[in-house]
Amino acid sequence: MTTSHTRSAELFARAAAIVPAGVSSNTRSRQPHPLYFSRVEGAYAIDIDGNRHLDLTMGNGAIMLGHGYPPVQEAVSRALAAGLTCGVESAAMVDAAEAFMSAVKWPDMVRFTNTGTEAVQHALHVARHATGRTRIAKVEGSYHGWSDEVFVSVWSDLSQAGTPDAIVPLPQFAGQRRDLVDQVVVVPFNDIERTLSVLDEVGGDLAALLLEPVMIDIGFIPATTDYLKALRTAADRHGFVLIYDELLTGFNLAPGGVADSCGVAPDLALYGKAIANGYPIAAMAGREDLMRMTEPGKGPAFVGTFNGHGVSVAAAAAVLPILAKGEVQQTLAARGQRLAGSFSAAAADTGVAARLVTGGSHIHWYFLTGDVTDYRSAARTDAAAYAAFTGALGARDILYLPNPLSHHAISLAHEDAVLDEIETAFVAALGATARH
Ligand SMILES: Cc1ncc(COP(=O)(O)O)c(C=O)c1O
């Protein structure tokens, strides 16, 4: 149990004067102040006051093998000892690319950048270059980074968002370029009829349709295979580029991600997170004709000071062969199922309408009844129940995300004893939710 947060409070007082919200990413902002950490190990993070927290955020799903996984740390140490940082290519980049290509079957080529936000921008550049068109379509409720043109209709206020037949593209922050937002076509996830009726109308103007094939950023909502097939057919009919954002699914749900496992290949896809167990790297993969458009002088720029960073590619070259075997994914899927089962039993015992959704290393909780198939059905989750539940987890020093439409994760380090601890906390937190 938490003893004291004195040093975190002191650090926040120093940081808040010079760093907005005292944190580097707004998702880490907390009331009355964020926590600052000195060390992480396995499934735990130790804050600056020495409190040990069970981590259910795991780097927003990036740290699938657990904090400080030894083979990755050793590869990183070797890169550090060799002084490899940025500005030159390394053998590890080629190793990582080969490991990627031998695990992911559908694409012809891969290229590394730093973040998911950047990878998405590259894919949109390629799509526009290939089609000569500018507009893009995306799914309501899916997050693809914070750039002006895709941070659209992510956590939409449904009172402003129109009907499922005519979804209004909404900006996510003040100061976002309205001209770009208004150009975005927003379609409902898993709704073939409504999506096709929109695509049949505007498909000829679209450069790309971008989607997460499992919407993990708002919990865990798989696309039906029929939905993906319908999008593939529409892309071919109207000549736009189909892009899967596999930042959370790639290597996490299965080595080749959804593109391989569902049998409906996109034209381009984006990867990151799990591919380097927490080190900053992302990738774009795809069809050769599209990928080669990013070669010098041919089309969109593909440049970046930190692209192919020596430390990150060393981490990726160590991680990808491990994840390529598929065993980690199976182990984590079984652990997720165990948590889903015990959560359901505890929810039934306490009379709380809730479920745990899971796949790969991902877990999340919805507080609702009925099916969850898209953003609008997920947005019915009871925010007050979520706050009561996660507040009780926080009181037991479990790290969580305050947004009811977000996602949590376990890792290879969340072994049986850790799962026992999580289950005990879930029972107590569901009890607190019931009393709320
Ligand atoms: C599905 C998805 N796409 C894109 C991004 C953006 O990636 P990054 O935070 O590396 O810019 C994220 C990050 O949370 C994501 O989950």
Could you walk me through the main structural features you see in this protein, from its secondary elements to its overall organization?
- The chain is 40% helix and 16% strand.
- It has 436 residues and is α/β, with parallel strands linked by helices.
- It has a 7-stranded mixed beta sheet, with helices on both faces. Strands 1-2-3-17 form a 4-stranded mixed beta sheet.
- 51% of the residues are buried.
- The model has no long low-confidence stretch (mean pLDDT 97).
- Residues 60, 115-117, 143-145, 212, 217, 245, 247-248, 272, 282 line the site of pyridoxal-5'-phosphate.
Index terms:
single chain, 436 residues, alpha/beta, Aspartate Aminotransferase, domain 1, Aspartate Aminotransferase, domain 2, 2 domains, 7-stranded mixed β-sheet, 4-stranded mixed β-sheet, 15 helices, globular, binds pyridoxal-5'-phosphate
Write the layout of secondary structure elements.
Blueprint: H1 6-18, E1 37-41, E2 44-47, E3 52-55, H2 58-61, H3 70-81, H4 91-103, E4 109-113, H5 116-131, E5 135-139, E6 162-163, E7 166-167, H6 178-183, E8 185-187, H7 192-202, E9 206-211, E10 214-215, E11 221-222, H8 225-238, E12 241-245, H9 257-261, E13 268-271, E14 282-286, H10 288-291, H11 310-324, H12 327-350, E15 355-359, E16 362-366, H13 375-378, H14 383-395, E17 398-399, E18 408-409, H15 416-435
Parallel strand pairs: 3-17, 5-8, 5-9, 9-12, 12-13
Antiparallel strand pairs: 1-2, 2-3, 4-14, 6-7, 10-11, 13-14, 15-16, 16-18
Helix pairs in contact: 3-11, 4-11, 7-8, 12-15, 14-15
The structure holds pyridoxal-5'-phosphate.
The site of pyridoxal-5'-phosphate (PLP) has 14 residues, from α5.
